[in-house]
Amino acid sequence: MKNIFVGNLNFRATEESLRGLFERYGVVNSARIMTDRDTGRSRGFGFVEMANDGEADQAIAALNGYNMEGRALNVNEARPKPERSFGAGAGRGGGRPGGGSRGGRREPRF
User: Fold this and answer.
1) pTM, full prediction
2) Which run of H or E residues covers position 59?
3) What span, in angstroms and rounded, lies between the C-alpha atoms of 21 and 44?
């Protein structure tokens, strides 16, 4: 099974149109267009998962640069998502030297 990144999608593209494009080359397990979590609008890229690696490679070769709805697609094998680090400061915008809060006036330390 191969996961394929599809970038530079027209913001009006649908998951159905994306699936249809890739089904020309083989069996498509899923086609997802990533959306903004606040607005629900397309972020202009998505992922297609194909069952057969050979068919996926053919689709990548044929569709990279393909003009879909006026935009040249950027198609390649998806890279694994990097693991997030949950060490000190993770999820809080990073650590602050010296600690403390952001606001308010601080008295000097003696």
Assistant:
1) 0.73
2) helix 53-63
3) 16
For the segment 49-73, what is each residue's pLDDT rounded down to a tens digit? 999 999 999 999 999 999 999 999 9
CB atoms within 10 A of CB 42: 18
Task: Report the alpha-carbon angle 81-91-105, nearest 5.
Answer: 150
What top-level class would CATH report for the domain 2-77? alpha beta
pLDDT of residue 30: 98
Which residues are 2's β-sheet partners?
50
Q: Which two tokens stand for residue 84?
A: 């997030």
Q: Classify residue 86 by its DSSP letter.
A: -
50 within 8 A of 26, measured Cβ to Cβ = yes
